[in-house]
Amino acid sequence: xxxxxxxxxxxxxxxxxxxxxxxxxxxxxxxxxxxxxxxxxxxxxxxxxxxxxxxxxxxxxxxxxxxxxxxxxxxxxxxxxxxxxxxxxxxxxxxxxxxxxxxxxxxxxxxxxxxxxxxx
Length: 120
Description:
By secondary structure, the chain is an all-alpha fold.
């Protein structure tokens, strides 16, 4: 017979991973759109058509805030996954999966920083 606490930890882990993957997918889409929007700007900060980026600038900032919010959620989920993994004991596959989710979070954070520096 299996330990009920272990089953709850596994369920918690899987739910957290599912939520992490969903947010990672959302971030991937948002960051892609963010990069495309940034690509429409010239060195002077104007949209390629030559018109001031009033609406685009607001869109850029709004999208940046949405991405930042998703990154914060993903960070919270990664923290929860760390606690869940620690309570489950040492398991190589769990550790590797957790490390991969942390790498993804780091990569997305770097992409946002690069985009923010481009817009600054």
